Amino acid sequence: MIRIMRALVAVAVFAVLSAGPVGAAETLSKDLSSTLALLGVPCGQVVSSQRLGENDYLATCKDKNTYRVYVNKQGRVVAEKR
């Protein structure tokens, strides 16, 4: 079950890349917020994000904490505090 949820989160986060430029930043922030919540990271809301590479993002939360959200070599979505 957890494996399926992680896969769905990965798809949701990275599906934003195919969205048009209008609203993509807002959608990405919402997707990253959801991803962090599913991973159990106390973020609340992502207020800004930066793409570092393919399937690799830097998310800044409302509480000023920053996390790197990416897909590791095993295909799992990971969040590392920066």
Number of domains: 1
Q: Name the overall outline.
A: globular
Structural class: alpha+beta
User: Could you give the order of strands across the largest sheet?
Assistant: 1-2-3-4
Helix content: 25-40%
Report the β-strand fraction as a percent range. 25-35%
Alpha-carbon distance between the two ends: 28 Å
Number of helices: 2
Which whole number gives the mean pLDDT?
83
Order of helical and strand elements: HHEEEE
Backbone CA Rg: 12 Å
What does this structure look like?
The chain has 82 residues and is α+β, with helices and mostly antiparallel strands. It has one domain. It is 35% helix and 30% strand. It contains two helices and four strands; from the N terminus they run H-H-E-E-E-E. Strands 1-2-3-4 form a four-stranded antiparallel sheet. Strand 3 and strand 4 form a beta hairpin. The radius of gyration is 12 Å and the shape is globular. The chain starts with a helix and ends with a strand. The mean pLDDT is 83.
Report a brief summary of the structure.
The protein is an alpha+beta fold. It has helices at 2-15, 24-38; strands at 46-53, 56-61, 66-71, 77-81. It has a four-stranded antiparallel sheet.
Key attributes of the depicted protein:
82 residues, alpha+beta, 4-stranded antiparallel β-sheet, 2 helices, 4 strands, 35% helix
